[in-house]
Amino acid sequence: MLNVTKIKLQNFISTNEEAIIRFSFFFLGLLVFTFLAVLGWQKLQYGFNFTDEGYHMTSAWRLSAGDHFLETEILALSKIFNSFLFKFYPDITLLEFRKLQYIATISALVIFSTALFQVTKQYWVLPYILSLFAFTGLEPMGCFDTLNYYSYPHLFITLSLSFLLFGFHQKRPTIKRLMFIISGIMLWGISFSLLNLSLVFFSPILLYICMRKLKFQFFSFSFKDLCYVLIPFILCWSLFVAIYNYYIELILKSVFYALSLESNSVGRTIHINWEALKHIGVSGVFLAIFIASRKCRPVFLMPVLAVSSVTMYVFIETSFWGKISPYFYGWFAKPMWFASLLIAFFIIFWFNVIVKFFKKQNYTKSEELSVILLIPIILMAASRSLFSTTGILSISYYSIPAVTAMAFVVINNQQIHLKSVFVKLLILIFLFTPFYYTTSMTDWEFTYFDVRPKDMTTTIQSGFGKGIRTNEAYSRIYNWIRTTSDKYTKEHDFMISYTTTAMAHMITKRRPSLDKSFINYSSVSIEYLTNAVDKMIRSVRQPEIAFVFESPPSLLRSLTNKDMYGWVGKCFQFSTATDPLSIYIKTNMKYVENFRFSPNNDVKCFVDKKNERLLCDLNK
User: Fold this and answer.
1) Which of 3, 138, 328, 445 could form a disulfide with 151 if both were Cys (CB 3.0 to 4.6 A apart)?
2) C-alpha 510: how far from its chain's center?
3) Rounded CA gap, 294 and 169, in Å?
4) How far apart are CA 198 and CA 355, in angstroms?
5) Which residues lie below 8 Å from residue 36, measured CB to CB, with a gap of 6+?
6) 223: phi then psi, degrees, rounded to nearest 5
7) Rounded Cα distance, 504 and 494, in Å
8) Do the Cβ atoms of 465 and 48 come closer than 8 Å?
9) What is the pLDDT of residue 391?
């Protein structure tokens, strides 16, 4: 009896010691997470973008200024969410928009972590897994930190899976159904944000089938539960289409137009990217070493993993000693390695799932959890990669659930599960650090057509860009555009900004005359511009002012010398241009001012010949 009591006391002490160790590592993880979160918050102020980020902002702001969303770009309706923000807070700045994205990220991570803890009871590891996103936010590629059709799906899939897990954990039927309904609404949000991600609708159906075929033991999902997830998705879209019944027709026209462009032809969209496969192959070997090393003796395990981690870091930094071409012109070279790790994990994981299925082996709780997390991610990544110029790199936009699945599979592996918390933590550090560190550093230094933060010497003092740090040239362009537009026009007048400079609309708060606010000279057809100009005239949306950029104000950093920058070359020669938009500006508008922002790049300002302020100046 005394021995039994002694054994129980020892087990109690051992259990308490382990609990203290786990909490200590959790507290340390929270410190790391908080430190990165503070850096991520500070990072938001750096970098200004006249092109893509301006497009995302303009497409939403113009709705709050009076444009109808079905008369503008219609495939990405996430702009409607942003337009509400502009309506409630008309003076919101770009920096405040970035902060909202960051707050949404942290909120989603907290909700997701809570759901994971409820179903796994593992908490100490979560701050380490999610630490990358405390710095990068929903945008691991480092392009733009606002809420847009890239970041919204990342937010919604994280929330959808969170509420799905809450539903699995709940015992009370009413709360369980509510959780599944909210999960379904979040799925609809993904589809609404970017229409080609509607494939995610089938993820609950595939999950329902997989849970029966694979004979899940730890999670249950009935047909009634499936209906509670799918019905909100169907009802939300049905209601939207019922109200705007010509939306389907517009979608078909948009699809036909997109397919007519040479840049979106099948041969260009669907192809084998051999350089991407090389990335996946190297990352796959690295991951396979980690999987194989779990059988090593403890004395060999850590050295093997440490050497593998350092070697992988060297591979990423040197692009496999120059043997693999940097991905996408070198802009996203480091994030591509992170994406390739996720894809390599998908391949290895599903191979293991299939093998276990044919061997009739049971799945662990972590494997079942990973199936739940990965099914929608794979559907979204497959759909997005076909429609994005960045290809499979776009999987990084859904990486919060993906890395979580990987981490839980690794630390709960049969050979790893019984090891100490310290050993598990070291394994995760060696696994993720090469990818997390290089992705974070890219996010810090790559400001998408702006200079590095250390080279940003100016802070924008007023207007939509207030509080943003940038280079002096961008600041001068910004101030000139704002001053010139105020000189000749009034707020909410119509304007043209040509070419690829949508941010000019946000700087001036002048509405786009055309349905398409992001006019890229090389990617739009003459037929499209002809129809766009005709519609502009019929709708009485002729511009009061036009800014013509023969070259968008965009800086490119040298891939060989990080201290050197160069301006993007000319897109077209306006004086000899014969496209419909250029002809309209030359015919109906008067050239008034010019601003040279680099030795070979100017922005020209034109004003409507009937402009009252111009006529007044001319009379003087």
Assistant:
1) 138
2) 27
3) 31
4) 30
5) 131, 132, 134, 135, 440
6) -65, -35
7) 12
8) yes
9) 83
CA dihedral sign of residues 146, 46, 397, 111: negative
Show Cβ contacts of residue 196 under 8 Å, excluding neighbours closer than 6 positions.
75, 383, 384, 386, 387
pLDDT averaged over 10-residue windows placed end to end, the chain, 620 residues: 50 66 93 97 95 94 92 87 96 97 97 96 95 95 89 97 96 96 98 94 97 95 97 96 88 70 50 80 92 75 91 94 83 92 96 95 95 96 84 91 95 74 90 96 90 95 97 96 95 92 96 90 82 94 95 85 85 91 96 91 93 66
Answer yes or no: are the C-beta atoms of 109 and 133 closer than 8 Å: yes
Q: CB neighbours of 269 closer than 8 A, spacing ≥ 6?
A: 386, 387
Q: DSSP letter for 91, please.
A: T
What pairing do the DSSP bridges indicate for beta strands 494-498 and 565-567? unpaired
CB-based contact 317:438 (threshold 8 Å): yes
Alpha-carbon span 362 to 364, nearest angstrom:
7
CA distance 408 to 151: 24
**Cα 339 to Cα 341: distance, rounded to the nearest angstrom:** 5
- For residue 558, with 0-12 CB atoms within 10 Å meaning exposed, 13-18 middle and 19 or more buried, which class applies? exposed
Nearest one of 142, 144, 132 to 437, comparing CA atoms: 132
- β-partners of residue 605 are 547, 593
Sign for the CA dihedral angle at 588, 593, 595, 596 comes to: positive
**Closest among 513, 559, 214 to 357, alpha carbons compared:** 214
Question: Please, which residues have CB within 8 angstroms of residue 104's CB and are 6 or more apart in sequence?
Answer: 138, 147, 151, 155
Cα 546 off chain centre by: 31
Estimate to the nearest angstrom the gap between the alpha carbon of 459 and the chain centroid.
26
Neighbours of 236 (CB within 10 A): 17
Distance of CA 375 to the CA centre of its chain: 19
DSSP string for residues in 350-371:
HHHHHHHHHTTPPPPHHHHHHH
Query: Where are the alpha helices (H) located in 121-169, listed in sequence order?
Result: 126-129, 131-136, 151-169
- Residue linked to tokens 């019944």: 245
Residues 532, 554: contact at Cβ < 8 Å? no
**Rounded to whole angstroms, how far apart are CA atoms 168 and 23?**
26
Count of CA atoms in the C-beta half-sphere (13 A) of 214: 28
- Between CA 197 and CA 619 the distance in angstroms is 56
Residue 424 CB partners (closer than 8 Å, separation 6+): 125, 411, 416
Identify the CA nearest to 518 among candidates 569, 571, 479, 477: 571
Give the whole-angstrom CA distance, residue 40 versus residue 133: 9
Measured CA to CA in angstroms, residue 245 lies from 43, 249, 321 at distances of 43, 8, 56
Q: What is the 3-state secondary structure (H, E, C) of 566-582?
A: EECCCCCCHHHCCCHHH
DSSP code, position 598: E
Q: Is the dihedral of CA 567, 479, 66, 149 positive or negative?
A: positive
Cβ atoms within 10 Å of 491's Cβ, excluding its own: 11
What is the token pair recorded at 216?
Answer: 């899940």
Residue 412 is predicted with a pLDDT of: 86
pLDDT, tens digit, 9 for 90 and up, residues 7-25: 544 454 456 777 888 999 9
